[in-house]
Amino acid sequence: MAPQAHHDLMVDTTHDEHALQSYVSNLRMYILNEIGGGLSSVYEGRVKPAFEKRAGHAPQDEHDVRHAMMADPYCRTWSTMMRSCQEMIWDSIIPSIERAQPELNIEATRLAEHPKGSMTLDPNVKIPRYVSASDIHLMPGNYHSERGANDVSQGALYDRGVYVYAAGNGGPYGDSIGRSLAQHLKIRFPDLQPERILDVGCTVGHNVMPFVDVYPDADIHAIDVSAPVIRYAHGRAESFGKPMHLHQMNGERMTFEDESFDLVMSVVTFHETSHTAMKNIIAECKRVLKPGGLMIHMELPRTAEMDPFDAFYIDWDSYYNNEPFYQAFTSTDMKAAYMDAGFKEENYIEVMTPDIYAAPFDTFEAAASGPETKAKRYGRLGESIHWTGWGAWK
Amino acid sequence: MTQNAESKVTLPRDAKGKRSVFFDDPAIDQIMTFILELSAEVSVVYDRMDTVERLLDEKGTISRDDIEAYRPNEGVEAARNGRREAYLKRVFRMHQESGQKE
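Structure tokens for the assembled complex are given below, as produced in the milestone run.
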């Protein structure tokens, strides 16, 4: 695991904690790629033929595949390893955060003293049930838990946890999706010169911070319902010297003025909200967007476009990794959702971009300059890493 | 792990909700967790021993503080990554007849 870019809110680890986090990261990649890589041949080789013999037809959808696969010992072994390893990620980090208190919160407060950006907390923001009811990704305490004033613990846990989870493949700043999106938009829409940019559901700001680099003249705003992650995002951005305006705010009921942003975006936010919340957020994005502005949401690929095995694989997390809205989201028709919110069909766009760190730059550039690319298999399934998004001009 | 006495911050260790069970006998899931945790302990001990050996090569004599303060540089981290990957391949080898690719 390559080292994470250092900032002043990063928590010190002991020798052995560092060794443990490194191992858990290796372990996850091994289970995901080496053992997980055998799932498709298990399916094609014995699970699918047995299903066909029994049912008299091929598996019709991801649910057929799931029921059949989850009865197979290979898939069960892979699954129980995935689940345990996910728990081990958080366990490898939590003790270091506990030990770092109270200095960690004090440091966050210090970083907020002479800011280049700003932070606005709103104690009246209620944590929505889709955040409070479940610990997403099995992260104990989820995004929002607070233990006293100025607490940033959950932000610290998420920042390091995502890095260990991705084995550093999101780049030293863990910003691969946001940086890919920002750079893609810059190349594809050279006339888009946003003065104000908004990120909805920013957590610790991983994916919005690259917009500071790509659009240096823009004011960058980012919101999240959770105070601990907003405090952490603010301290992290200040420590990196990146001016950002962080707000504790619910994307379903924003307090920004109408038509006040040129670009409104999110990165993997929708699949962690309910369907109702997603519709409310889209309506709010439209309200705060200036005429001629762009809304774009980066998300998981649609399972409707996949064969049943790939859909089963993508949606595994929904059932076993505390992603209660994942499966409902991946089967949502985003274009229809945007049309329902009043966007015009001719203004609908899709983004399919290679990962900016994984792809050679000319490949990246070609994908942004040419006609919209369609990869047959992408995300975790593809030969190379691609990120997908759905957008609309207002 | 000792906590800073002043802070008394305790973070939860378990995620909300029922823990997924994948085998008909939940003891198998439990045993798999034990094995994965043990595999992590072995890897941590190996890295610590590697640190001791490297420091001894370098300095001849070392203290516990030297070990705690040691952080692998890029080359050492890469060597350890390679060692861990080979270790994972040996310990968690799935049987061919289970359908893994040849």
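Chain A touches chain B through 66 residues (CB under 8 Å). The mean pLDDT of chain A is 94. Further analysis is deferred to the final report.
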